[in-house]
Structures are given as C-alpha cells and as structure tokens.
C-alpha cells in the first residue's frame, strides 16, 4: 500500500481533530494540516472568558490538558502531522487533486497533492451592510486577534461605551465579558427578544438577569447606521432614531459558513449555504470530505439541513471525516438535535432540541409545559431553575427542552439532550430513574417534574398557560380573577401587582365563597412556582369552577416584573 | 359516586406522595395518612448533611420549598389529607378492609376502613447478630431521632472515636458527616472494597480521596464483636483480632424492606424479601398498593426483581400507587436501572445501570472502558473525573456507567442514565449532541469521549486494560515494559514508580530503538490520562510491536499510589 496523502484545510477545531484521527488510524498516512492563522487548535469558545479576564493565560486557549501549546512542533512530534501555519489555501484543483497554498507572511506559494482532502474552513462573521461598518472601532469576536484586542480594550479603556449588534449567543456572551470586565455594554437586537434559540418566556428571564447585572439590552429595533468622526466610531443610530454614543461596535449577528474555496472548486452547497455532505461527511466529490462550521448538517428532529456552527459538533464531524479519509467510510455522523448552553452572568441558559416556535415552524403539533423549581432541596442551598418542555402532541415524544436560571441547568440540559437522542416520550421521562442525592438534585428531578406537569396537561388534569399567554389575557381586558394561593408572608414580600386576590391554599377549601359567583368566569391560579397553583386548580374544578387555568412556573417564571 | 376511602400507611417519602397524588386526582376522596413517627415527610436523604452541620435548621428537613413545615395541619389545609402522626398500624384485615391503629403516645386504638390501601412502610436498618449490638452507643442513621442524636454528639463530643460498620452509601456518607464535623471515624467493611455499586477501580479512587480527607477505612475484614463496659461501647474487635477503641458504633450495613404488616396480612413477598407488586404498584391483593422501600421493583436491564430503597424511586412509585388507587390502574412504574450518586468529601461518586461485576453476574457478555479527563477545558478551572462505561459486547447497548472525581460527575451520570433509559449504544453516545460551552463541559463531553474509547476498543483500535489488571500483570512477574509517554516535567512531578521508562510521545517515533528488541514482549503505555498512551500504542503497533496495551485512565485513574 502506497502512502496515503491526507490534506486538511483549517486548523481550529474540526481540522486538528480530523487530522489527528486520520493519523491515529493510519500511522503510515502523510497528514498535512494547512492553517491560515498563525495559531492552531484555538479554543475559540473560550474567547469571551479570555476577554473578561477569567482566563488569565492566553496560552491556555492553545494548550493540551497537559499544558503543551499545540503548535507545529507539537503536531509534528506528538501527532506525526505536518501542520503549516500562516498558510492560506488559494485554490483546489479537484482534477489534479492538488491544493494551491500561499504563505501569508513570506508570500511563498506552492502546490500540495492529496489523495483525500478534508475541508474544515470554518465560518466567517456575518457583517450586515450597515453604513459605517468600515469605521475603526467596528469589530467582531471571532478570531484570537479579535479577542486579544478586546481584552486589551477591556483592561485599559473601561470608560468607553460599547454597542454589540446582535443578541444571540455570541452577542450575549460578549456583552457579559465586557460588563464583567467593567465596561459599559449595550446589546441591540432587531428581533423582539435576545437568544432566539429560546422561546420568549425563558429568553425574557435571561434578559432580566443580564439587565440586573448591568448589561443594557435593546430589543425589537435594528441599527440604521454606525456613525463616526475621523474614521473612528462615535456612536450608532437605531432604526427608531435613537442615538447611542459609543467608541466600539462589536458585530455579533452570527456566522456564515466559509465556503469560498469549496464554491470555487465546484463542490455542492446546500440551501443553507453550507457545504453539503452525506452522513460520512463526504462532499459531492468522493475524495473530498468536509467538517465543522463550513458544512450543513441534518437536524435529526426535522430531517431538514441546518447550520450548526458549534465546537462540539465540529469535533465529532472532524472525527468522522478523519476516519473515513483513511479507512474508507466506516464512520457516520448522525446529525444534530441542536443543543446549546451558555453562561450569562450568574445565569445559565440552555436548550436542546426544538423550541416551541421552531417545532411549530417544522410542522409539529406540540404540547408544552413550563416548570419552575429549586434545583435541589432547600436545605442544600438550592437555586431556582425554570424549564420548558416541548413534545409532540400525538406521540408524546420529547421534541425540545430549554432551561434557564441560577441553578444547575447544566445537568438538566445534558440529561434531556440524551432523552431526546433516545427518542423518549413524556411518559418515559416522567418515570426516569436518575441519580439522586440532596447535593445534586431534587428527589423528583426538575426535568422529571416538568414531564409530570406536561403529562398532567396532556391528560387534561392540569390546565396551564405560559406567562406570555397569561399576560396577554390580563392586558387584553379578559379580566381573569387572579388567585394567588401562597402564604400571607410570601405575598407581603412580593406579588404580581395586577389586582390579584390572596387565598392561601390551606384556606381555599373553606373560602370558596370569596371567589366570583359565576363559576364560568376565568380564574388564573398561581403561587411561587405554581405547584400550589395547580393544586388550587384541582380543588376549584372539583367544586364546579370550570374556567380555571394555572400560571405555569408561577411568579418565579413571570418575566414582567413583580411588585415588592 | 360514593366517597372513596384511601388509607396510606407510612409518611416519609412514598406515602405523602401517594396520598397527595390521590387527593389531587380525586378531590372527593377521603385520604388518610397514618404515620408511626411524630414527623412527616422527612427528607431522610438529608440526615448526613444535618449531622455534619451543613443543614443548619432541622425544620428545613421537614419543610416545603416555600418553608412551610409539613405537619398534620399542613396536610389538612393545603392537601386536604387527614394525616395522623404517632399512629402505628398494628394490623390489616383484608377481608373487612380495615386497618387497626394505635397511638404510640396515648395508647388509644381504633379501626379505619379503606376502599384502597397503600403500604409505604419503608425499610428498617439491618442489624447483623454481632455480639454487643445491644450496648448503649450502638446506633444507626435511619431516623430523624438518630440524626438528632448524632448531630448532638458530633457537636459536643469531638474527641470520641466512632466505628461505622458497613462501607456502603450510608456508611460512607455518615463517615463523611462525622469527619466533616471534626470527629474520628473509621469505616469497617467486610468486602474487599467500599461502595459496592462501583467496580473496584473506581471505588478505590473514592476510598483514597476519603482517606486523604481524614476518614479511616478498613476493608476486607468483618467485626467479630462490639465490646463494652457498664453497658456502654468501649470498642470493636475485628475478625482478624485487631481492636478498635471507640465510644460510638454506627450500623450501616444497609436496610431491609419493612414488611411485617404486609406479611402478617398475607400479601405476597418476593425473593428479595420486598413486597411484590405489578407495574401498577398493586400487591397480590387488588385493593392494596405498595410503594417505596418496602417493595421490590424490576431491574429494567436484567429483568430481575431487586430492592431499590432510594428516595427518588419512592416518590415515583408513590405517585403511581396514589393515582391508581383513585383512578383505577391508569399509571405504571417501569422499574429501575439502578442510579445513585453521593458526595464523599470533595469527591462525587455516581453509578447508573450495571457495574461490570453485576452485568457479568446477570449473564451479559460485556466490554468496558475507563476514561480519565478534566470535566471542562483547562482554561476554565477544570477538575478531574474518571468514568467507566459498560456495554453489551454483541449489541453495543450501554449497560452501565460509573463516574467519580472532583469534577462535575453529576451531569455525566444524569446524562448517561438517560442514555441507558433510551437504549442507546456505544456508537450512539459516541456521536451524541450535548450542550457545550467551556464553563460546562469539554468540547467532546467526558462521557462521549469514554464512548469513543470503548468504540475504539470494540473495533480493536485500542487495546486497554484497567488499573487492576495492569497491576496484577506487573505484580505477577509478567514484567511488561512500562512506557510513560508524558513530558519530562510531568514525569519529574509524579510517576508510577514501577521501573517505567519515559519516552515523551513527541520523541517516540524517533526513539523506537530504545524499546525491547523483542516486538512480542509485553508493553504497557500510559500518560496522565492515557490519551497520549493510546496514541503511543497506535504508533508502536504501526511499527510492528504487537503486544502493546494501554493503561486505561492513565495515572489519574491509578489507585495504587504514585511516586512523587
């Protein structure tokens, strides 16, 4: 067998993984990794923490767990891989099976032959055509150089004001990093909410928390221009005419697959703009694989192609591409369900599977439930979490789960991602056997309790609605009777402030006479988290009230402000 | 419809849950809860944290998340349930459908009729027939009164020595509680290891940690007697003749189902000694349900009945029993996979599904892998975790997962419990899409990486062995060539100390000449976690060495002491 020549383009996440896997599975292969930047294997997901100063040492973003920086010498020695940095690929000749490269420092050029090529060209930040985007002071946070620059700024220019355009994951993480570093940062998001992977009930809770920590957030309005003087940013003008003075603008609209090379080489791109591959990560050319942010992948829940530019998937895709390039299509990548998590100050926000919005968009008939609870028993120093469970109305199959809060969202989201991957139903999760001890979870795990709520809703035992639906019913003149069933002390500390009546659950059976005489009149019950609210609904229904609904998640999940 | 009378015996976990669920689903039912103890709904899993002083306020063990103590008045008012405490049930007449009760304080007696009865009589601590077990100073940690007594002792008698008989979950948690409270505590376990739900490689790591924190652990030897003077404990004598002076002995051998009432009433008990129920939690009498520690449940992996006295399952079983008692068998409890987690000082130890030992006992042909890694990227302040994955050799179906360490074991165990419940295979987990961001996990989640290792082993790409197998090969004169492929600095700080050779991975390809000339000679490779150890194995095999194996988990998973 002659030596197989594997060329990998791109050295951030998918590329090094593909190259390493290929070499491990075929020590005789000649594996070459070409990287345009000067660094390799950058932990780009760590940039916000580096900007915030939480990651002290820049090298840690580039190092193995043993502390060795992953440079060309490391790849040569430890991995047996030829890694060429500062080397841009300028073209691919699929006939001749060569790539043309150019040193960005010296200008040197050359051709490199391959037997199998793996494209891991990543993504590029989207920069919308806003006037002024060319001004000095307009940047992104997508490269290590960006991160260096922002870290420097955050450390030295604390008085400057920053506007972040885009309230997605990167925008919110960047905002947190700057505020944590002591800067003044405003997120401007054109959509009505930030973090569009979350349904609004949960996104609003995250926004409230970010705002309470000093972040400024403006939603529902775009940017009409970035303004400047002497070539430097002085502010932005919003579509509604408002002016925000600032000296730094960070574009965080999102990223687009970097497909210039693939397109020029005539490889098929998909409807999302990403490179099309099959399950083996093989492009339209059987000798060319692709992995990472530059490809589109299958959403396992909808079957539709989507872009999923996440570091974890890049690694898995790279592992598959690297293996198949040397062993000949023995591995498959099954696609994504769309799982993400982020830290926003003391909050964690996570989502796996489809949001209600996206599930409906994909044509599912869905049922949902919202649950608020502590993350573990009160005696263990619990913190609240709020989650939303989305399931298929017909089969009960879990389609999505989102969770936010100060508590342990991480466990909840990870376990529910596995539940979705396993095709579990609401009934399955309702009876799941998870590890329990007081330091780690509630005896009835939060997500299991969320499944109990949804199961109760699906069976008509509980009638609930989200904060958003409840608010619109209150605002739109339906005049529901708002029944708070907490204790008087709880009520004194904090309440809805919308004309509610307090009847503690423990007195409800005796005080039914205080409710509206008309048993068809709408009643909304709730408590702190609406467990007691649900019990109140059951009591009222048993007593003939038949228009009773529960405010799901209670006051903990109410994002519209409480009266104190 | 006449009022349905539901009687629930037992008021700790399953009982209150069953009663509450029954009342919520049928407000017209008359639900009576009979409890022998004076307290209700005790968070018994919290006792160790209460003894340690971590839980300050005793009422928190008895309170709702809103801080209301769950006493009889609470049950009457909020739940509509008649809860009678200090009321022992002395007999069940299944013909007459009555239970006979007796007030433990006043001696008053009476009969209570039922339409449906739910037995939640819990468990009793096992007390083996060791001479001296009747001495003052011999106790258990199974009731709130036990917890009160131990907390008092731990607070006031710090100089006393304690011996804990039994190194299971409760024994180790109790030991931690006492050591954390500043006492001298020794666990004596007759088996060769503590925490028998873990395979020994992982149990030894936990023991090492506990010992480093001041716990004393003696394994592989039983207690022959508890000794005393004037009716009070003065020490214990071990089976090997050793004497341990102490003034307190805590029996933590485990618990047995409390089935006296059920047995006397002629209900069927199973081979494990627990009450037999069907999936609906119905006993051999269709009008009697049972839930919680007193029942035996189906192990979903082996199909065999087992005892699973855990608070989370008690709640789920109680929920099913309570529903079925009023609605007529609409709910089912599918059984357990055996999931548990515990905190041992700064370590967390968790297991879900079967250990290798138990899987083999159940007749499975298993494959396993051990993985050690940080729990998140190094730049985020990572802590190590070590896991073991057990799968069916034929189908690749995950049978078990255990994880221990200073890092985030909780997420790993919860997600893998769901993976087992979903019937996922090693290949499925290897390509799982889990939420990732640097504060929460590695880009390739630890459990996914463990699946990668097992996948590599199943495909013959990686040849590994556990620390225990490697140690026995070293000890038994096989003289394997021990190849440490870390860096010189790492080697200097800490090493195996068994005659190993250091050749850093980066130099291995050039220094093959230093290896044994006989390419059939046994070589064991490793590094800190054995990722590089695996790469070394691949390099050596590609160069003709064909008896190379990897020490799985590397030095991090080596529980037999390292040379510093």
UniProtKB/TrEMBL annotation, chains A, B:
PANTHER family: NAD(P)H SULFUR OXIDOREDUCTASE (COA-DEPENDENT) (PTHR43429:SF1), PYRIDINE NUCLEOTIDE-DISULFIDE OXIDOREDUCTASE DOMAIN-CONTAINING (PTHR43429). Keywords: FAD, Flavoprotein, Oxidoreductase, Redox-active center. Its cofactor is FAD. Gene3D superfamilies: FAD/NAD(P)-binding domain, Rhodanese-like domain. GO terms for molecular function: oxidoreductase activity. Pfam families: Pyr_redox_2 (PF07992), Pyr_redox_dim (PF02852), Rhodanese (PF00581). Coiled coil: none annotated. PROSITE patterns: RHODANESE_3. This is FAD-dependent pyridine nucleotide-disulfide oxidoreductase. Belongs to the class-III pyridine nucleotide-disulfide oxidoreductase family. It comes from the Bacteria. Residues 476-564 form the Rhodanese domain.
């Amino acid at each position: 067998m002659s030596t197989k020549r594997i060329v990998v383009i791109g050295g951030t996440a998918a590329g090094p993984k593909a190259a390493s896997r290929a070499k491990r599975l075929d020590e005789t292969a000649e594996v070459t990794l070409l990287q345009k930047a000067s660094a390799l294997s950058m932990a780009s997901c760590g940039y916000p923490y580096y900007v915030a100063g939480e990651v002290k040492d820049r090298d840690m973003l580039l190092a193995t767990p043993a502390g060795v920086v992953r440079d060309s010498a490391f790849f040569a020695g430890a991995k047996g891989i030829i890694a060429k940095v500062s080397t841009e690929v300028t073209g691919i000749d699929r006939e001749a099976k060569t790539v043309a490269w150019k040193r960005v420092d010296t200008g040197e050029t050359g051709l490199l032959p391959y037997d199998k090529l793996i494209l891991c060209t990543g993504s590029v930040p989207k920069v919308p055509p806003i006037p002024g985007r060319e001004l000095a002071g307009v940047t992104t946070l997508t490269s290590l150089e960006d991160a260096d620059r922002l870290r420097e700024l955050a450390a030295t220019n604390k008085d400057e004001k920053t506007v972040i355009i885009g309230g997605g994951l990167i925008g919110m993480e960047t905002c947190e990093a700057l505020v944590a570093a002591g800067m003044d940062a405003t997120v401007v998001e054109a959509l009505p909410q930030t973090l569009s992977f979350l349904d609004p009930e949960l996104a609003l809770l995250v926004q409230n928390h970010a705002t309470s920590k000093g972040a400024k957030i403006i939603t529902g309005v775009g940017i009409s221009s970035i303004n400047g003087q002497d070539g430097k940013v002085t502010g932005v003008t919003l579509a509604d005419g408002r002016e925000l003075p600032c000296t730094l603008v960070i574009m965080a609209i999102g990223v687009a697959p970097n497909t210039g090379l693939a397109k020029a080489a005539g490889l098929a791109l998909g409807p999302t703009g990403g490179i099309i591959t099959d399950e083996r990560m093989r492009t339209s050319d059987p000798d060319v694989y692709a992995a990472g942010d530059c490809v589109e992948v299958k959403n396992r829940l909808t079957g539709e192609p989507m872009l999923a530019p996440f570091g974890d998937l890049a690694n898995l895709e790279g592992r598959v591409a690297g293996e198949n390039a040397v062993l000949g299509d023995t591995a498959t990548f099954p696609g994504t369900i769309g799982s993400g998590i982020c830290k926003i100050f003391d909050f964690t926000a996570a989502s796996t599977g489809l949001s209600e919005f996206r599930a409906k968009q994909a044509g599912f008939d869905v049922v949902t439930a919202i649950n608020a609870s502590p993350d573990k028993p009160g005696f263990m120093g619990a913190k609240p979490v709020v989650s939303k469970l989305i399931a298929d109305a017909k089969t009960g199959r879990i389609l999505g789960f989102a969770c936010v809060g100060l508590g342990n969202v991480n466990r909840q989201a990870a376990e529910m991602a596995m539940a979705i991957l396993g095709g579990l139903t609401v009934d399955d999760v309702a009876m799941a056997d998870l590890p329990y001890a007081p330091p780690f979870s509630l005896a009835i795990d939060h997500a299991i309790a969320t499944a109990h709520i949804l199961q109760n809703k699906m069976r008509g035992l509980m009638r609930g609605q989200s904060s958003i639906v409840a608010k619109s019913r209150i605002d739109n003149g339906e005049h529901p009777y708002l029944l708070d069933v907490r204790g008087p002390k709880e009520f004194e500390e904090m309440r809805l402030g919308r004309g509610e009546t307090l009847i503690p659950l423990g007195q409800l059976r005796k005080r039914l006479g205080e409710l509206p005489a008309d048993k068809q009149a709408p009643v909304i019950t709730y408590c702190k988290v609406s467990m007691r609210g649900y019990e109140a609904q059951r009591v009222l229904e048993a007593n003939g009230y038949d228009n009773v609904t529960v405010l799901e998640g209670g006051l903990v999940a109410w994002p519209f402000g409480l009266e104190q």
